[in-house]
Design a protein that fits this description.
Strand content: under 5%
Radius of gyration: 25 Å
Largest sheet: none
Number of domains: 2
CATH class of the largest domain: Mainly Alpha
Structural class: mainly alpha
Length: 129
């Protein structure tokens, strides 16, 4: 099972690390289930979600999906796990703070810094600390 898959990956010019990772994922599945039946694949996906972080789960699922393609069973492919992304950027001031800061610079006649802050806000550029 894994030797044929390894040859398939090498023929498709996958990197050596990817081949190792995919073969490991296939062996992990084979240790738990005798055949890639749809029910077994779903159970394995659930087990992966309970055991690993989403990135690892998706890597293992990608490997199994690649194996299914190599054996002509692409109809059994599994969907990946969605990863929650942060809806905001860290270390960003709110609009009210920006307006207050900008007004204080203008009142203090700090025109250079006033326009630097306006430029940063208008372009979205960030400084490196």
């Amino acid at each position: 099972m894994t030797e044929n898959f390894k040859k398939y990956l090498q023929e498709k010019n996958f990197s050596e690390n990817t081949v190792k990772s995919y073969v490991y994922a296939l062996r992990q599945f084979a240790e738990r289930f005798p055949a890639p039946a749809k029910q077994n694949l779903k159970k394995h996906r659930e087990w992966l979600i309970a055991q690993y972080c989403p990135q690892t789960v998706n890597l293992r699922l990608r490997a199994i999906n690649c194996y299914l393609e190599s054996t002509g069973r692409a109809d059994r492919k599994l969907s990946f796990v969605r990863m929650q992304q942060k809806p905001f950027a860290e270390n960003v001031i709110i609009q009210a703070d920006y307006i207050y800061f900008k007004n204080r610079l203008r009142e203090d006649d700090e025109w250079l810094w006033y326009f630097v802050i306006r430029f940063f806000a208008a372009t979205g550029i960030r400084s490196m600390n």
